[in-house]
Structures are given as structure tokens and as C-alpha cells.
Amino acid sequence: MKEFQSSRDLQMEEAKKTIPPYMKAISGSLGGTVEACCLQPIDVIKTRLQLDRTGSYRGIVHCGASVSSSEGVRALWKGLTPFATHLTLKYALRMGSNAVLQGAFKDSETGTLSNRGRVLAGFGAGVLEALVIVTPFEVVKIRLQQQRGLSLELLKYKGPVHCAHTIIREEGLLGLWAGAAPTLVRNGTNQAAMFTAKNAYDVVLWKKHEGDGKVLQPWQSMISGFLAGTAGPICTGPFDVVKTRLMAQSRDGDEAKYKGMSHAIRTIYAEEGLRALWKGLLPRLMRIPPGQAIMWAVADQITGLYERRYLHPAPL
């Protein structure tokens, strides 16, 4: 009986060993930097397709080829600076806040986290990142990406800082939070699904539990991250399209076409049909799951090394 109690106490103590939020934040920021550099062209193509109301592009390949031939290959990396900064800060906040919220939702006695707690922590982290970082950065990124050509003299926005300054001057500070409502819904749902799915895939595929000292191989993290990143884009496609349309429209004198999230959904459906609400889904699936694969491959290595060194040090 004493041996059973001792074993149970040991399991509870192991469950309470967790990676601190600051390490999760560091791992996420480094993973986000690598992801941004690799996948920026796909994000540019996704934005151009979502903003294409006249059918100028016949698909992903045609869009990429058209942009490259008419504007140069460098145009596929338009908005990289705000995108990389945005991803680095976003993943730091996402991973760190998710770790804090998971700690808050854990059972105080056993140190275990329920599936409900994991979902709520992911949703909270997604809402927080959307409000603090994602919305203003994506407004700037989308305004830069929708511009055609490379000549600065012909472009309204000369760069990220000039773009943000122009938006604030012409539309007010809240102009940087255009499309905030669909962004909150999209990111909250995405992260609730992603964190829950990533943990489930790690357990089912690799028998990996957080805090157990086991470090996944990069290819294992990439598989789990890729699979975890697929559900969100399909479920939140309409919110992503609406977010992009709301962020792209300027309010400098002309009346805005879309009055808000609900009005945008109704207008797009009436004018362009139901399928238009999932415009850009394929490039999102080409970017988000691979992006999650890259990010988790980096993040898991960093947190895994921390686990081995500080939570489960090898005996001397």
C-alpha cells in the first residue's frame, strides 16, 4: 500500500513539472522567425487571391507566376518585415500566454490538465494574440501586399512604418484594428484546435507527454504540427476572408464597402457566392500546416532540451 502511494505521489510530482512560460515564449519566437522566412511567398499569394474580385488570377501557380513576371520575384516577399516581426511576437505571446493559462486551468492537487482546460487555454491565447499583435500587424501587411508594382514613387505606402503612420493619420488609431472581430474569432478557434490537436498527436503517435523528458525528433514534431495545423483553416475560412477584406479597405474619404463582420459575410455571399467565403483556402492550407510543422520542429527542440537539462537531468 505504501509502495502504491509512493508511486502515485511520484506520478503527481512528475505531472507538476512544467516548462516555464518564458521558455515557451522563446521557443515560439525562434520558430516563428524561421517560418516567416520560408513561407512568405505563399502568404502573399493567399492575400492576392482573397482580394481578387475580377478573376484576374486562375489559381495559386498562375497568381505566383503573374506576380513574379509583372512585379519581379522580390514581390513575393512583400511585407516580410512586418510578417516576420508579427510572427516572432505572435508566437512568443501565443506560447507564453497558453502556458500561463494552462497553468491556471490545471488541477491544483494532481497538476493535470483536462481537455476542456487545454481548449480554453488555447482559445484565450488566440484571442489575446489577435487583439494585441495579429490585427494591427496584419492590417499593415495586407495594405502592403495589395499594392501592385515595386516603384516606391507609385505606391501609396512606402514601407511598414510609413503604412502604419498613414493609416493612423487618415483613419485614426482604430484603423490599425480594422477587422478585429473576425480575427478574434479566427485566432481563438485556430489555437483552441491547434494546441489540443498537437498534444493529442504527440501522445497518440509518439507517446510523448509534456514534462516527461522525452525529446521528439524534428521530423516527429513536423508531422504532429502539420496535422494539428490543418483543422483551423477549414473551419475558419470565412472569418479569414472577411478579415482580409475589412483590413484591406481604406477609409480615406470614401465610404467603406463593408460595415462590419456580419455585413461583409452577407455582402460577399450575395455578390460572389458561397465559395467566395473560402477563397484562399488552398494557399492557407499550403502555408499554415507547413508553417506549424516548421515552428514546432524548432520549438520542440528548444523546450525538449530544457526538459532534459532542468526537469529530468541525467544522473551523474
From TrEMBL:
<keyword id="KW-0472">Membrane</keyword>
<dbReference type="InterPro" id="IPR049563">
    <property type="entry name" value="TXTP-like"/>
</dbReference>
<feature type="repeat" description="Solcar">
    <location>
        <begin position="19"/>
        <end position="104"/>
    </location>
</feature>
<keyword id="KW-0496">Mitochondrion</keyword>
<protein>
    <recommendedName>
        <fullName>Mitochondrial succinate-fumarate transporter 1</fullName>
    </recommendedName>
</protein>
<dbReference type="InterPro" id="IPR018108">
    <property type="entry name" value="MCP_transmembrane"/>
</dbReference>
<keyword id="KW-0813">Transport</keyword>
<feature type="repeat" description="Solcar">
    <location>
        <begin position="216"/>
        <end position="305"/>
    </location>
</feature>
<dbReference type="InterPro" id="IPR023395">
    <property type="entry name" value="MCP_dom_sf"/>
</dbReference>
<feature type="repeat" description="Solcar">
    <location>
        <begin position="116"/>
        <end position="204"/>
    </location>
</feature>
<dbReference type="Pfam" id="PF00153">
    <property type="entry name" value="Mito_carr"/>
</dbReference>
<comment type="similarity">
    <text>Belongs to the mitochondrial carrier (TC 2.A.29) family.</text>
</comment>
<keyword id="KW-0812">Transmembrane</keyword>
<keyword id="KW-1133">Transmembrane helix</keyword>
<keyword id="KW-0677">Repeat</keyword>
